[in-house]
Specification:
2 copies of one chain form a homodimer. By secondary structure, the first copy, chain A, is of the alpha+beta class. The first copy, chain A, is built from 5 helices and 5 strands. A 3-stranded mixed sheet of chain A has the order 4-3-5. The N and C termini of chain A lie far apart (51 Å). One manganese (II) ion binds next to loops of chain B.
DNA sequence: ATGGTAATGATAATGATTATCGTTCCATCC
DNA sequence: GGATGGAACGATAATCATTATCATTACCAT
């Protein structure tokens, strides 16, 4: 499958957002990003941050996951993966499992459902928090 | 595993909410529920609807899925399943797949992650909307 | 340079959910 | 049977993430 990102103008603001995301392994929300950009001297209006994130995602340059309260963005230059989120410390771990992926598609196919995207999130305690638990 | 729902008082309002959910196959949001209750003569304050839904869920009497914009509730008296959501008509289809479930747990176990819950949602076009598409 | 379109930024608006607070309901104890 | 303290309600204000407005600015192509 060939992805053809619609041509967008890489303005200074969009470039700053993209750089911030691409040079990190974090899953950013709009506010964190705006604050971080501001701290690094590159202050961008919050509305522009939201618009920039949406535009960059449409262009396929970044990806997002929709969590309960907010949307979080991450770099798009890694293979597809899903997430495990620690309900204690908030850390996000990634995982990929080819069999799970293909089983999803086959289940959908059985139902005549044409999948365009999916999101699998597991909640629980990460290793660190599980250990720290037994006080 | 034995589930012990904390004892809650089944007030008239909570009962009305529970009945509405249990006698349907829908995935309700708070507003739809309040409106429907109002239509059926059983009008309940919107704040009470929100509180009732949260309380009933904690007690294990209903379940929820968190979608992008809002939370939707459904009856808890069926086996665990996940969802496929049509991005054209909004319909929600359910599916269950034991292998996917167990693979999830094994992936988590590998990472030392203690899973307490998960949510798998696929987005795309349902059979009906796929067919109606070719105009 | 100039006109036109896209992007930006400050701010208002929106929509779902939660917080507040005075009132009402209930179970329990004289 | 009535007093009483806590739980639940309902109306409404507040919150929070996101989107809409709109005047201003930047960029592109004649
Ligand atoms: Mn990720
Ligand atoms: Mn369901
Ligand atoms: Zn943790
Ligand atoms: Zn559909």
């Amino acid at each position: 499958m060939i992805i053809v990102p619609s041509m967008i103008r890489l303005t200074a603001q969009r470039q700053a957002i993209l750089d911030m995301i691409n040079t990190s392994e974090r899953h950013w929300d709009a506010d964190e990003l705006a604050r971080s950009l501001s701290d690094s001297g590159q202050s961008i209006g919050i509305a522009t941050v939201y618009r920039g994130l949406a535009t960059l995602e449409e262009a396929g340059l970044i990806e997002s996951i929709q969590l309960a309260d907010k949307k979080r963005y991450e770099r798009a230059d890694k293979a597809h993966h899903d997430h495990m989120i620690c309900t204690a410390c908030g850390s996000i771990e990634e995982f990929a499992h080819a069999t799970i992926e293909s089983l999803q598609l086959s289940v959908a196919a059985e139902k005549g459902f044409a999948v365009s995207g999916h999101q699998l999130v597991m909640f629980g305690l990460c290793r660190k928090c599980t250990q720290g638990e037994q006080k």
